[in-house]
Write a structure and sequence with these properties.
This protein is 51% helix and 7% strand. The chain is built from 20 helices and 7 strands.
């Protein structure tokens, strides 16, 4: 009877395994199978060493969906000798935490084993629930692994944050996702290897780009494609079109399409067409372009093409640079759109950009002469004997906080690098400089 029940249980387990999603079946079991997150758990990194030595500190894994937070926790469960308990903050409460604490105390007392508790979506715990964890994390009765897609500095109590390490997991690169897809196609035990499927390079790249750094999404798309064809068949771009019901962006990040789109994006911002700029932004986002790459282009355009016509454009652009790193996708599209439309709609001037290039050309190709003596550092003993700083006029001692004196070296006397335009705020700069230096700014 017992043997029959065991056989039934084994058959039921194998049958349920068959119906698990591909992403679940393909979860890495060890670091040899784990793809991506080299900065956090690459070979020789602190966290990886601690996992391998079973000396894990309490931590919160923070990153976008599909980047390996739950996978990493499950790997810890399989690699550690500690007791491993799992909770989901959506359904768990204080009673569940206290029950685990009691079991942890027993394991520590009788078996000298530590207890690791993994709390998925820890940001959903309220303050009281998080506070319950504090004393047990502090005295080591629990090793906490929290997982969250939200910024823990906003969503987790400061008292708890001070007792854990924050481990940032980033969106997976297209290269990582392509490796993951090929791994799933080749794995005969858990993946699709037994079906002898093939996939075109174009289809692999398209799935990677459409997944936006989310490994779970990439494997789900692959599984949907595989479900539509017979064993031994090929997954190609036409099949993906059928599944997705929408146009797949053909966007080779190393080819002409990439450079053409980026070029059109920048030129649209420079040309003050926010609609065109937003369109090309959408193309790049849909194709999975690196967010930092896009944000850098916006910041450069703000400085180079808007310049002093609206200095606030660079402030907005740099805020977007920080926001992109701070929130990730899909929310990152919003600060990017804000910055792109602002920069595209701002008055334009490249005067500052032209000025620095002209000045650099002189510095590199001609003898510009020494710094005038009255402008040299006069703070050290003996400077006056060398004539340094003598006859320097302090601008704030004069009406309107301006006084005429020579600032350029003698060899460059009368040279003008900066030619402000009349656009936007730079028009006010132009008027001010004309009043100060009428001989140069006419």
């Amino acid at each position: 009877m017992d043997l029959g029940m065991d056989l039934f249980a084994t058959a039921e387990k194998n049958d349920s395994k068959k119906y698990e999603p591909l992403a679940q079946r393909m979860r890495p079991r060890n670091f040899d199978e784990f793809i991506g997150q080299e900065e956090a758990v690459g070979k020789g990194k602190y966290l990886r060493k601690m996992i391998e030595k079973d000396q894990l500190p309490s931590m919160i894994l923070y990153g976008p969906p599909g980047t390996g937070k739950t996978t990493l926790a499950q790997m810890v469960a399989s690699l550690t000798n500690s007791n491993f308990k799992k909770l989901n903050a959506v359904s768990a409460g204080i009673g569940d935490i206290r029950k685990i604490v009691d079991e942890a105390a027993e394991a520590r007392r009788f078996y000298q084993k530590r207890t690791i508790v993994f709390i998925d979506e820890i940001h959903r715990f309220n303050k009281s629930q998080q506070d319950v964890l504090l004393p047990y994390v502090e005295d080591g009765r629990l090793i906490l692994i929290g997982a969250t897609t939200e910024n823990p500095f906003f969503e987790v109590n400061h008292a708890l944050l001070s007792r854990v390490r924050i481990v940032r997991l980033n969106s997976l690169s297209d290269k990582d996702l392509m490796r993951m897809l090929k791994q799933a196609l080749e794995d005969k035990e858990r993946g699709l290897g037994s079906r002898r499927l093939t996939i075109t390079d174009e289809a692999v790249e398209a799935i990677a780009q459409l997944s936006g750094g989310d490994g779970r999404m990439a494997l789900n798309l692959l599984e949907q494609a595989a479900a539509m064809i017979d064993d031994g068949s090929e997954i190609n771009i036409e099949l993906l079109h059928t599944i997705l019901g929408e146009r797949i962006q053909t966007y080779d990040k190393k080819g002409d399409n990439h450079y053409d789109t980026v070029s059109a994006f920048i030129k649209s911002m420079r040309g003050s067409d926010p609609d065109a700029a937003i369109h090309y932004l959408a193309r790049m986002l849909a194709a999975g372009e690196d967010l930092n790459f896009i944000a850098r282009r916006v910041a450069i355009c703000a400085a180079e093409d808007v310049g002093n016509a609206d200095p606030f454009a660079l402030v907005v652009a740099m805020a977007a640079v920080q926001a992109v790193q701070f929130v990730g996708m899909p929310e990152a599209r919003i600060p990017l759109a804000e910055a792109v439309t602002y920069v595209a709609s701002a008055p334009k001037s490249n005067a500052a950009y032209m000025a620095i290039d002209a000045a650099l050309a002189d510095v590199r190709h001609r003898n510009c002469g020494p710094v005038p003596e009255h402008l040299r550092d006069a703070h050290y003993k003996g400077a006056a004997k060398l004539g340094h700083g003598i006859n320097y006029k302090y601008a704030h001692d004069f009406p309107y906080h301006f006084v005429k004196q020579q600032y350029l070296p003698n060899a460059l006397k009368g040279v003008t690098y900066y030619h402000p335009t009349a656009n936007g705020r730079e028009g006010r700069i132009s008027e001010y400089l004309k009043a100060c230096w009428p001989e140069r700014y006419k």
